[in-house]
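Internal ticket #5521
Category: modeling
Description: The requester needs a full-assembly model to guide mutagenesis choices. All entity lines are attached below as received. Residue total reported by intake: 671.
Assigned to: D.W.
Attached entities:
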Amino acid sequence: MESIYWPTFFFWLFSLISCSFAVGVLLASNIVRMAFYLVLSLASIAGLFFLAGADFVGAMQIMIYVGGTLVLLIFGVMLTSQERFIEMKTPSGEWVIAFFIGASLLGLLFQVAQGVPAWQGMDRLEAEAIAVEKTATPIGMGLLGVRVDKLDETDKSRQAGMSGYLLIFEIVSVHLLVVLIGAAYLARAKRKQNRENLASVT
Amino acid sequence: MPRGLLVVTNWKKWQWLRWFEEKPKVARFLLELTLFDTYICPWPWLAYTIAGLVHVALILNLVAVSALVFIWLERKISGRIQDRLGPTRVGGKFGWLQTLADGLKLLTKEDLMPATADGFLFRIAPYVCFCASIAAFIAIPFAGGPYPWIAQHLNTGVFFVLAVLGLEVFGVILAGYASASKWSLFGAMREAAQVVSYEVPLGMCVVVPVLIAGSMDMVVIGDRQAGWFTNWLVFHDPFTFITACVFFTCAMASVNRAPFDLAEAESELVAGFHTEYSGIRWSFFFMAEYGSMFSVSILAAILFFGGWHGPVPITSLLGVGGEVGTLGWGLAQALGLANVLFKGVIGVCLMIWVRWTLPRLRIDQVMTVCLKYCTPIAAVMFLGATFWHYNLPSKNFFGLTDVPAEVYEISEGWERVAGESQNSGNTELVAAGEHARISSLSDQVLLENASLENALLENASLENVGGRR
């Protein structure tokens, strides 16, 4: 038992759960079962994030992917499908295309992951020495324009470049606001039309 | 004959111990198990497993036993509200064993499933609900300080709890869909619509205490409110007071309690999503419901009502406390635990009171309450609280009292990163001071980014000079 490096064990456990339920999504034909397998797959990816010490990203994964997306998916499924327990069949041509796209993406990512020297050959003692850093507040402060993790920087010329991610944050915020307003505009009650309809009915 | 000798002469009783002479390795293993905390365990994996099991057992028992108590409480309180007595007989006084009798009845009921149901999803749905309800307790602290009583101390605890509580709806949707009954499906759809809508104002309300405490760590938020009840965030300013009320309303809606229990509206939908369930599977839904009621109440207690700090700081008045691991520390933490649980129970009682007082809303009224009232009010309160905190960053209790000095000493854990590389000797001091500076500055950060950055850079350069000396 002593020789087992437990983080590696849990990494394999979570990735195995994630991959097998991802395959389950492919093989299932009932759309709600697919959604359920997808939830489990995404939740175990959140487990991988927690294992890596990235609490914030893990919670984000649960909140956005596991929670939001799947509730929306189920909305879509239930509002569109007319008959109960709808079965979906994938044509074999789509299987072939999807297989090639997926396999090429996997190969590419695998090669990239293997090509980063910093990710190779870390031995166990080195890995155990890495301390978990609490990153949520520093990231938040960085988004607001303060890099609290770089306060020690003495070089004046490098201090100028450490204004944080304020601009990116602002761009994303404005973008989200535009999306919100757009959604509200699209979903608004079209009063004028309704009145005309009512008039034509009466 | 003296009593001690009598024991010694009775040594034959202990003869089986000689078996260990032949098996020294087994003896050593058992000895090391019994001396577990007196010296460093030679098997860290075992220590981790046992620690994990203790946490799991405590959380499971908390949810199960609290469900037992709350169901009884609900029957008693609803009885009193309707001018009845409620259960009186089972278990002697007050009918306190009524829930256990109910549990036995549920265990012996037949486990039914509709013939056309999707069996796998139908069977798994109650467990999904229950797991989501329990998982929220992983990140909820029950006592604070530098060594909090919490299963997993997460840096972003509030966010995690909110995310996991949102998962409970998934079990309900699965149950409603897999039952192959239109009543169940209607209930599940209502629940989905309701929970998704109410997550928006709920999240906005949670942001306010996070903003004032400057952290998403629930331990830090709780410790921010140390001392008298005047330090509670609900009394921080008028805006947080209203935010707490909105939070409680939205929390009640997100855990499907009346008047927001559209998903199981028995006057319209038979029983909503659990129409087809019976026996122990049905009771799992209710354990999940009471568990999440308790967790949102504890969440409200920690975010707004001081968490483990009572209205009166008994521990510091009596001088209870001390080093970590001493009896005084344990007593102080246990008092904190009692505080959290008591506030949680009060929250649940409030929910029960509301349930038996107000009639159920219609689905359009539920949506109106969320989108036309809760969300705008929460947004305005967020802006107001930001403005208040920006103008009076060091004031508590509607701006009447000062924030106690020890609040600035609370460490979130990341501050050491800043001072470590150069000031290794007095890291702790520097970290504390720096955190105080940063947290007081972070109040202004929302409005004054540029000037803040300059101030921080000046601080950093000053400190570097100090470090070199």
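Resolution: model delivered.
Comment from assignee: Chain B touches chain A through 58 residues (CB under 8 Å).
Ticket closed.
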